[in-house]
Amino acid sequence: MCVKEGGSPYLITFDYGQKHKKEIAYARLLAENLGVPHQVVDISNIQNLLGGSALTDDGIEVPEGHYAASNMAITVVPNRNAIFLTIAYGAAVSFQSKFVGAAMHTGDHTIYPDCRPEFVDIFGTMQKIATEGTGDADLSLWTPFIKKSKAEIAQIGLDMDLDYGETWSCYKGDRLHCGRCGTCVERKEAFELIGATDPTQYQ
Question: pTM of the prediction?
Answer without folding.
Answer: 0.93
